[in-house]
Each structure stands twice: as C-alpha cells, then as structure tokens.
Amino acid sequence: SGQVVLRHARARQVMGEFGHVYKEQYAVALFNSVRFEIEGGGGPQSQLLHRKNPLEDHSIFSGGLFQYLEGNKKWRNRFVFVADTYDVSFYENKVAHERGLHPKGTINCAGYKALTSMEEYLDLVSTSLPGVKAKVGSGPFVKGATQFPLILWHPYARHHYFCVLTEKEQTKWHAVLQDCVRHSNNGLSEECRVQTPAFTDAVRLHRQAQGHYGTWDMMCGGPPQILANLVMETLYPELRNLIGPRLKGKIKQRQRNWMLISEAVYKQVLSQTQAQYEALVQACEVETPRLDAALRTDMDQIITSKEHVSGKIRALVLPRAEQLLRRSVQPYVSSILEALMEPTSRGFSEVRDVFFRELVEVSKNTLNGGGKDKLGEHMEKISMLAFHPVKMQSCYEKVEQLSLEGLQQRFDVSSPSVFVQRAQILMREQMDNAVYTFEQLLHQSLEEKDQRGENLCKTIQCCQDRVLKKYDYDSSTVRKKFFREALLQIIIPYMLKQLAPSCHPDLPPFQELIFEDFSRFILVENMFEEVVLQSVTKDIMMAVKEAAVQKRHNLYRDSMILTNSDPDLHLLGESPSVDWAAQFGGGDEESDESPEGCGRSKWRRRQVVSMIKLDGMGPLPYESCLEVPGEEEEEEGATPMEPEPNSPDNVQEIRYLINPVVEMVVPASEEDLAVLTNGTEPGMLTLEGEEEEVTLITTVVEEVHRKSLQWKSAPQEVSKQSITPYSLSTVSSGPTKGINQVYICLFSPLFKMREI
C-alpha cells in the first residue's frame, strides 16, 4: 500500500499548498476586478459582433467508428456522438443514442493528443516507463483492424483506440478530435473576472515555488483537471520509480499494467481535486461580500498604500531588471516576435480567405437562379463555419507551423503548443464574429426590401465588403494583443527565474510597510512581479509597434482607429442567430434527431459537420464485431467475449498488477503430494518458454474421484476465486479414493492460466 499512501500524502500536500496561495490570490483578483470596475479602461472596441452561445441547438459530429476493446482484443463498431460540449460519447449503436440511453463511455478530451499513426503513439508510450522501448510491430496490446487508426493519448489517463475504413474518414475524424481537444483544453472561462485570474496566478506561483518557471503544457481543462495534472506532475515520476522496476513480464504487459495503474491513480487524484477545489471556491465566495464591501470603502487608501510600497520595491528591483533585460532579453525580442508573427498572420489570413470563398459560393449559387430558398440553405451551413473543424483545418495548419527552435531552451518554453492552441481559439472566434456580423447585416437588408437575382448578389457583395473591412481591423487588434501576451509569457518567467535568487531575500521587510487591514489585497510577491512586468513592457510594445509601422503581416498602426460606419450595428448584436432554414427554406440534411437536446424544433438538433458517405458502400453494420487476434490467440478457438478491463480501483488490484498471481492445475499422485505441499520452494520457473522469478508459492490440495468430471471444471472455478498468496494451506475433500488435484498459486510475473 506504499503507493496509495504516497498518492494521498502528495495530493494533500499539493492541494494544501495550492489552497493557501489561491486564497491569497483570490483577494488580490477581487481587488483588481473592483478597481477596474471603478476606474474603467480597456482596449479598442471590436468592430465585429459577437454572439454569446453560437452552438445552441447544434451538435458537432456523429458517425461510426471501430473501437478497440482491451478485454477480448476485438474491434467493435460504435456510434460516436460529439455534442456542443465537445465531449466524445460512444454508444452501442445509433438506435441506442436516438432512444436516449446512457452512452457506453464519454471522453473529456482535455490534455489528450489526437494521433493518426501507431509510430507516433509508440514514441509517446515508450517514454512512460524508463528503459522500455516498444517496437512498431508489437504495439502495446493493440493490433490495428485497418491501416487508418485514430488514437487519443494522455500522459496519465486511459488511452482510446479507434480506426476507420478509409483515409477520407480518418482525415475528417482526426479534424473533429483535434477540435475536441482544442476546445476542452480551453476550459477556463474568461468571463470569471475573479476566479480565473486567482486560479491561474495560484497555479503559476505554486509551480514557481517548486522551481518550474515558463509555460506548462498540462494547463488543460477545467480547474479540477489542471489541479490533478499539478499533483501528477510530482506524483507520477515518484510512482514510476517506485513501481516501474517491480513490473515484470513482456514489454507489452508491463506497459499495459503501468498504464492501468497510472489511470487508476489519476482517477482517484481527480476525484480528490474536484471535491477540494469546490470546497475551496465555496469558502472564498462566503468571504466575498465582506471583502467587496471593504474594498469599495477603502479603495483610495488601498491604492495609495500599494503605490507607496511599489515605489520602494521598484527602486530595489528595477536596476537589476533593466540590466538583465539589456544583456539577455532585448537581443532576442525581435526573433521571438518574428517566429510568432509569421505563422499566426498566415493563419488569420487563411481565415479571411475561407470566409471569402464561402461567400463567393453563395453569390454564384444565388446568381444561378437559386433565389432565397437556396440562399437559406447555404446560409444555414455558413452559420456554423467557425465550428466546422474540416473547413477550418487549413487555417489551423498554418499556425501549427509555429516554431521557437533555438529559443525554447533559453527561455524555458516546454513547447509552442500553448501558443498554437491559443492562436487557433482566437482564429475561430474571429471567424464566428465575421460570420455572425455578415448574417445580421444580410438579414437586415433582406427584411428591408424584397430582393432577387442580381440585386440579391449585390446585397451579398456589399455586406461581404463591410464585414471584411471590419475583420481586417479586428484581426490586427487581436493579433497585436496575442503577440504582446505571448512575448510576456515567454520573457517574464525567464526574468523572474533569473532575478529571484538576488531579489527574494530582500522582499519580506516590505510587507511590514502595508497596513494590516490592506494586507490581504496587497502582496509583496505580486508587486515584485508587476515591477518586472513594467520593466519589459516598454520594449515589447515598441517591438510590436515597429512591426505595425513597417506594415508587416497586415497589422494596423495603433494610432489608426476605424470610424464606426455602422452606428446602429451594435443593436443587431442583441438579436438572436438567424434561423435561415425556417425563414428562407432549405433542407436540413445534416441534422441529427436526438431526444438529448432539442433543436429549433423540439426534437431536432442540427449537426455542424456532415455525415461521411463512402462511395460504393452502404451504411456500416453497427452491431458487427471485427476480431483481431492478439499474439496469444493465433491458434484456433475464439476467446469468449469478456468485459473490457477497468483500471484498478483498490490497493489489492494494484498489488496484483505489480506482483501477479499465476494459477496452475497439476494432477498429482500421492507420492507427489508430499513434495508439492512441503518441498516447493520459491525460485526460477520456466513457463511459456521464458524463465521467470517466483517469490512465493501457495498450494491448495483437493481430492476428486477418478471418474468425476470435477477436475475438468476445477481450473475455471479456481480462476474465479480470490486466492490470497500470503499463506500455505492444504485442503482435503475427504477419504474418497481418487486422483489428487493440486492448485498451485504462483506469486510471480504474468502468465496465462494453463492446465498441466
């Protein structure tokens, strides 16, 4: 039970330390929120409209996938449904989904990677256990049913294996799964002006206290998931070093057992962080009214006190920060900015091109005699363009080329994935803003007067031009903000790490200068970071400004403010999304009927991505089961269906994974009985062609009649019993003459139960 004690101790330690920091940062975040509310401020106003709930009454995708079942080494066809929450649910078949039955399972994709090759997957799996290198030909207990796999990999949670029949299906499903990962990773709401800043600052400060500066790839999902990843960051290597050397057997079995243990630990840690975080937030919210009242009463005094202490900290820190900035940061700012700007600007430019091409198609089809009925059908599809992962894939691929080669190690950037996903989220938001604005402008024009043919095309063209002009301005504003934030995320942790050894010892005396009543809202550590931030902000702003002046990557100058040519446009932003199919006709071929969520009609939920139709093929048989035998099943005789194994949920199950029990049935004569019960010693044993170490042997003796059939069923009966391998016991069934059956339980590496 050492690993369980370690898990509980580590989880309690991390959550205790985090909870203390979170309570401090919650008060600071509340102060900043109230101050912003009172003083106001903000950047340039967006020109495009923004809708609050774009995926209302929509699902993302659904269809058939083959899923690998670990229990019987078979691939079973599942109906997979991706809702507007981006959770991936899989059902026995489509009928089960339509009836509203519970899914077989649901995957929250936060922290996962969507892979399409076994080679890439094996590279990631090989890093889980030190000294274990898997080969492509013998993947970890997975043998593909087709050559088009889809794998969801997570460093701690369960891995999921799917495959499809064609490359076209693989491409579409991969884009959908990537979008699920992208959306699920973005689990912190920006609308929570207190909780989210308090949480992110607390996580960052906690990791910095452990010596981890810089970006973190596992800042994924909601707060409980991020906290579970925070615990596992320390716990995982400790468990691996404790348990890894004790896992025995073939490479595949060791990897499988370690992954089951990792999943079990992660699930238990996640349940702990979920409960403790909810209690932590509730405790902070209870205090919020009192803190808010104190802030609004003493805001002026608190600000004055903070500025007084900040000035003294600035006098101490600023000279050291500026020296570090000149020597180790300024020479690299332009290189970092260029590495960020090139792929990001290409991605936003591709968003503009995709939007433009879709509108050109609408104009062409309208001009060819489609009229308003056809317009409604096309606009219904364009309405969800930003959430169509296949159509947006070309945009996302542009920014995936972002590379910080040569700069990652210097500035302690784990990988550019943090910046890539952030840019992709911003691209999707800008695409949806452009689509929504175009919808509202076009709908307003169509309501004002009846238009057909060329007049309708001219109206579409006019709305398109207005929206593209607004998109160019907003795109420039969003990208400049993204570049500034990315530069800060790269540079500030590096500077804090370099300055901390010399500055931190001098900071505690400054806390004594703060009035006790204000000490919850003014923290010396936060002011130290603000001084470092101020020291580098000027250089970052100047670098981005120079890029705009040079008109590189279509950035507008900061001095350029777009005059509002649509003074009443903001009023349209309060309007609901246009139901084009209902108002202007057009089919709904991509809808998916489901009692789970009512669409715009009670039982209708529109689907963003169209179903996959394979040329020359009928619908997939959802009840079919593809058998893919593993290495142990090559001989004749199919293995009966078994339930898919779950990760161990208790100490005993984890113990059996580390030290497995092998059950053997040995027919023995009376002469052999004494040797088996009294003379069997632990040692080396050769089974299935491999020599394995046996640490403990327990024998159970039972006498059965020679003519009885009991000996044939005994192995199966014994395999179902829980035999504790800690004692040696002899059981006799009575004086009946017959053949002695000896059940030997070997506490040893894994083997299949066999009859000797």
From TrEMBL:
Q: Show which residues constitute the signal peptide.
A: none
Concerning InterPro entries, the annotation shows: Niban-like, Niban_1/2/3_dom, PH-like_dom_sf, PH_domain
Q: What is the similarity comment for this entry?
A: Belongs to the Niban family.
Segments carrying the region annotation (Disordered) are: 628-650
- Put simply, this protein is called PH domain-containing protein
PH domain: which residues?
58-182
